[in-house]
Structure formats: C-alpha cells, structure tokens
Design a protein that fits this description.
Number of strands: 17
Radius of gyration: 24 Å
Largest sheet: 5 strands, mixed
CATH class of the largest domain: Alpha Beta
Number of domains: 2
Strand content: 5-15%
CATH architecture of the largest domain: Alpha-Beta Complex
CATH superfamily of the largest domain: Creatinase/methionine aminopeptidase superfamily
Oligomer: single chain
Shape: globular
Number of helices: 16
Bound molecules: glycine, manganese (II) ion
Length: 463
C-alpha cells in the first residue's frame, strides 16, 4: 500500500470534483471455483484500491459528498475465521492505514444507502462488472441488477478518469520498479525458446516468475507460434528452430498495478531474411511512435504514424502498392494490423476498461472511427504528461482475413494479394512497450528495455 496521505489526497480531489450525493465504491468478494470455500485468486476492485487501498474481500466504502465524510463498511473477523486464517487486523485498524476514521459493519451499508435513496439523494457508482455486485446495487438502490450498468454515474466516471489517467509520482515509481518483473518474464521465455520446447512449459515458467515476486499475471499469458491470432491463449505447440514465437504477458503487483509487454522472436534466435524484413518494419513502427510521443499530440495520430510506417515497409517489400497516405486513409494497412496501437495502463492492464473505453481513451466530442482496424483503437485522445500507455504495433498474416479481403475485392488498389499469399504461414509479430508521457516526450518505463533488436535477441534466445 502507499502511504495513507496518497489515499487521503485522492479522495479529497474526488470530493471536490463532484457536486453532491454519495459515491458508492464496492470492493470485490471472493469468487468460488467449484464450491464456496475453494476460491479463485482474490482480485480487489481497482477503483476500491485507488481510493481505499485495502486488498481485502467483502468491503465497501462511501464518500458522502454532502456530509464530507468517508466510511468503510466491513466485518471484523470472528473466532472461526481466526482459527482457520489466523489473527487479522480489525476493519478500523486497516481503515486507519488509508486515513479513514469511520468504519461500520457491512450491514450498515443497507441502512445508509436505502435512507439516502428515500431522501432522493444521488448515489454515484461506476458500472459493476460482477454479478454479485450488480445484485447488491439492486438491493441497495432498487435499480434492477440488469440495469445497473446503464445507471452508473457518468459524472463519477469522468471525475475518476481525470484523476486516474494522470499517474502520480508514487504510481510512476511503483510502475518503474515492477517493470523488472516483466523483464524477467520475457527473458525467461526467450532463454527457454529452443528447438523441441513446448509452449505450455515456457508459459508455466513465465507464470512462475510472477508468483516468485508475490504478484500475479496481469492478464492470461499469450504465448504461441500462431501469433497471428491476436489473443491466442492456447499453448499446445512444440517449437522448432526458426518458428516465430509471440509472447505477450505482464505482471500484476500485490497493489494491483500492471505491466504489459510483447516480444516476438525466432526460436533459436536467428531470423530468416523474410522474418527479419517484416520484423524490422514492426520495430520501426514501435520506435517511430516512441520518438514522436509527447504531451499535446493525439494518440490517434500515433496509431496512424504506425500504420503509415507499416504500409510503407510493406510497399517496399511488394505486399502493398499505391500512395501510402491514401492506403492508410482507406484502412488498407488493417489487413496486417487489425487492432489499435495501444491503451492506457495502471491499476488495470487496460486501465478503467470497466468504465467504458471511450470515457478513458477518447476526449469529449471525439468520434470513434468505424473503420475496420482503427475502430479497435482504445486510446485516441490527446496525451498529457504522466499518462502511462502501451505502444504495440504489429504485423499479422491472418489467412481467413486475407481470403475474405481478396474474395470481396477489399482495398485491391493497395494490396498485392498474390504476394501476400506467399506469407500465408508466416504468423504474426507484435512489439509492445509501456511508455510514460513525460513533460517533453515519452520514455519506456523501467530501467532497461526488454531485448528487442535482432542482435539483442540473438544473444539471449535459447541461451
Ligand atoms: N496485452 C494484451 C492486450 O493489450 O490486449
Ligand atoms: Mn497491451
């Protein structure tokens, strides 16, 4: 946990940015796997962590904006809990650590909120994403569980996004520190990528790194030689020298902060010429974006910069043709990069995605593109100092997509389908770094970049 002043300051800022009512922030509960006492790994709600810091199940909190007080609701452990789980600090003792003086048993939440509803006071909450909390909101407010997402407070969402999008110095220091675990995850995969190795074995070794460091994975590990499947969670292949292995994984610290990196490299460490040509294009797209990032620019323009770098590289190789600006305007590059360049990152690997992507990644009045590819761009807004985001361009050869575009004559002015077909079994390459927007530029987070040049990869893969 951070120092209590950090949480006090965050709550103070939220109090002053919303006019009136009650902000209701529900923590998460334990979730049963197959019977109630056998639970999944507990993950606290990120909004609860941001304002109240306590990584403990079955708590809720309110910020009463009219009475200017904060209360944490939760039950102290009883003798049965102590017998099975050992002694634990009381809710009041825990609350003090995050600067909250008022606590009540969990049931007190019902009277508090139901009274406020009767008085016609506004109850602000973020969109719930777990069924138990949807039901709880129904019990507290009378809003049907299925309607609770739509009943979320837009005023609250916007106020929290304004706070959480700008990382404070403590978050930045913490993120910089945990990048070393992401580094270890990736270099572990690189060293194990030898002829005959199994994807599942490497995945297990990568996951063991996060457990050793007292955290978890920030999302299910993507590790496959079938890297053209963007979120490939199958690890059922045996690797052979020369296969391109795509590894996209990250660490989630015990405080809930995420890392998210992708590397792609040839098993055994040596690219074929064909692989290296495509690799260099993705690397150029990544580096061009990194060099151009600074406050005041639109991330949508960085997406288009990556798209143009890719289109131009593909034209040099004969896979695309025509005018690059026109090709990108038509969305032709999306045959190869059918996803957005990146997303905000922080307490969630896709930060605050539970609130709705547009609130986080698009500013007021900014229209989300409906064009295939750019429509998936999660972050398009103007960048500000201390944003933390991902830069993750890629080139993929997806046979089903290639066949569809060819059959439907999509972007035939810009794509050489016969040449593209020569890459049918190529797979995919993505290169992802986590970037902090600084006062006059951007920097890759952590004290060293995960190996990325062909030379660096050659020195570590399979070694
Ligand atoms: N690294 C996984 C994702 O950004 O979707
Ligand atoms: Mn990512």
């Amino acid at each position: 946990m951070f120092n209590k002043e950090v949480y006090i300051e965050r709550r103070k800022r939220l109090h002053s940015s919303i006019s009136n009512g009650i902000v209701l922030i529900l923590g998460n509960n334990e979730a049963p796997m197959n019977y109630p006492d056998n639970t999944y790994h507990f993950r606290q709600d990120s909004t609860f962590l941001y304002f109240f810091g306590l990584n403990h199940p079955s708590y809720a909190a309110i910020m009463d904006l009219d009475e200017n007080k904060d209360i944490i609701f939760g039950n102290d452990v009883e003798i049965d809990d102590i017998i099975w789980m050992g002694p634990q600090a009381s809710v009041a003792e825990q609350a003090k650590e995050v600067g909250v003086d008022n606590t009540k048993p969990f049931n007190g939440l019902f009277a508090y909120i139901q009274n406020a509803v009767k008085q016609g006071r506004k109850i602000h909450f973020t969109p719930p994403y777990r069924a138990d909390n949807m039901i709880l909101i129904e019990e507290l407010t009378g809003i049907k569980a299925k309607d609770t997402k739509n009943a979320a407070s837009v005023e609250l969402i916007k106020a929290i996004v304004s706070l959480r999008n700008i990382k404070d110095k403590y978050e930045i220091a913490h993120l910089d520190e945990i990048m070393s675990v992401g580094y270890e995850m990736h270099t572990t995969a690189m060293r194990l990528a030898k002829d005959g190795a199994h994807e599942q074995y490497i995945t297990g070794a990568v996951e063991s790194v996060v457990l050793k460091h007292g955290g978890h994975i920030s999302f299910p590990i993507i590790l496959s030689k079938r890297g053209e499947t963007l979120h490939n969670h199958l690890h059922n292949n045996t690797l052979k020298n020369g296969d391109l292995l795509l590894v996209d994984c990250g660490f989630e610290s015990s405080m809930g902060y995420a890392t998210d990196n992708t590397r792609t490299f040839p098993v055994g460490g040596v690219f074929t010429q064909k692989q290296r040509e495509i690799y260099e294009i993705v690397l150029a797209a990544n580096n061009n974006v990194r060099d151009a990032i600074k406050p005041g620019i639109l991330y949508k323009d960085m997406h288009l910069l990556a798209a143009k770098t890719i289109a131009s590289g593909m034209k040099d190789l004969g896979l695309m043709k025509g005018d690059i600006d026109e090709a990108v305007a038509a969305g032709a590059h999306a045959l190869f990069m059918p996803h957005g360049l990146g997303h905000m990152m922080g307490l969630d690997v896709h930060d605050m995605e539970d609130y709705g992507e547009n609130y986080v990644g698009y500013s007021e009045g900014m229209q989300r593109s409906s064009q295939f590819g750019t429509a998936y761009l999660r972050l398009a807004r103007e960048l500000k100092t201390n944003f933390v985001l991902t830069n993750e361009p890629g080139i993929y050869f997806i046979p089903a997509l290639m066949d569809k575009w060819k059959a439907e004559n999509i972007n035939t002015d810009f794509i050489n389908f016969d040449k593209v077909n020569e890459y049918r079994d190529f797979g995919g390459i993505r290169l992802e770094d986590d970037i902090l927007v600084t006062e006059n530029g951007g920097r890759i987070m952590g004290d060293k970049r995960i190996p990325i040049t062909p030379e660096e990869l050659n020195n570590i893969v399979g070694k």
